[in-house]
Design goal:
Structural class: alpha/beta
Shape: elongated
Number of strands: 14
Helix content: 25-40%
Strand content: 15-25%
Oligomer: single chain
CATH architecture of the largest domain: 3-Layer(aba) Sandwich
Length: 352
Amino acid sequence: MIRVLVVDDSDVTRKLLTYILNADPDLQVVDTAADGEEAVRLVERLRPDVVTMDLVMPRMDGFEATRRIMQSTPVPIVVVSSSFNSDEVSLTFQAMGSGALAMVDKPQGLGDPRHEEKAKELRATVKIMSEVKVVGRRYPVTGRPLVRPSQPWSGEHGIQVVGIGASTGGPQTLEAMLRALPKAFCLPLLIVQHIAAGFARGLADWLQGVTALDVCVATNEEALVPGRCYVAPTGFHMGVNREQKIFLSTDPPQDGLRPSVDFLFHSLAVTYGRRAVGVVLTGMGRDGAEGLKAMRDKGAITIAQDEESSVIAGMPRAAVQLDAARFVLPPDRIAAKLVELATLNFTCNNTE
């Protein structure tokens, strides 16, 4: 039995989430909290297996509650949020930066046409997160880049682009990686992060606040700019064409996913061949494995996050099993490897 604490300031929502979770025989809501202060006390007393966390609450919001819980009594926290509230979008990523593992859309009432779909997603996420071992923050975060180049970039025909794919646990890992890159890093980075509808802009804004690089949501026909990070928008596959411009596609989802990491990686394999880097980070499923293999077969540098540092190791493990990854590294060493490759292989006039 997985013991769950439900935190939400709405009595109606607490009852709804309790009903949804208790409908699964493997889940048991042991108590509910109406604000962050109560949540911190109940976590310390009840030691639940998982906490579902609302964000905008009186007295203490979900971000501060997450921060305190992860400092004192670490437990897997799932943010249950609404994509229609800009305050919640911002707080969602602050909470994830403080140790929350995943985010799901807040289910609406029984009459909502997507109620059962969102209820299933919530139950599945709670079950998966209950198996994650947490000890405070998963990655150390510093205010300084991990590596600063000591010489100009060189090698005109070398690496020209980096593609990154992530799912569950991805925002925290991206934060750690991008924070470690120097301002003079001059490779464009294309990021496909599986995330709930409406949160791509919030992810880009949050990452912009933790890195010296420019971060934006990608637009169609946009030319790649050195040192800029492009986040795939909700509902669109993202790729790069032979003119080295981003293209967004509404082609059917791949394995139920749009954007798809495989879609991005296959386009990089075709457009750049050995002049690209592909990185598969933490996440459920196997999205990115086939695309990373296509990149490696074309001579690209391919990297998978190691299992020990992954919140969920499904995606990087699938890539390793397919022999798609040339390197298997934790986030800090992935960042160092990207700086090394850029320093050795890319021409850029920007300097610190």
